[in-house]
Design goal:
By secondary structure, this protein is mostly helical. It contains six helices and two strands, in the order ααααββαα.
Length: 92
Amino acid sequence: MKDEQILKQATEKAVKNGWDNETAIAFIHSGKDIGEITSREYYGTIFFHNFAKAFWFFDGETHLKAGLDEWQWHLQQMVLEEKPLQYLKKFL
C-alpha cells in the first residue's frame, strides 16, 4: 500500500471515529497526491493528539506499565518509527 493510500485511509478512520478536522476532511475529498503535500503537513496531522485519540479510538484500555491511555501509547510508539505511516498501516 502506498503512503498516499495509508494517509487517506488513516484520515478516513479518524474522521469516522469522530475526528472533526476540516482540513483532514478536505484532504480526503481533494484527490491530492501525498506528493502534493509536504511531510511536515502530514506529520502535523498524524502526530496531532486529537487525530491519535480518534484513530486509536479510546476504548478505556490503558497500558498499565507505561501508565498511558491507548492512544498515547500508540502515538509514542509511532514517534519512534522511522516510517510512521507504516506504523499506522498496521491498524487500518
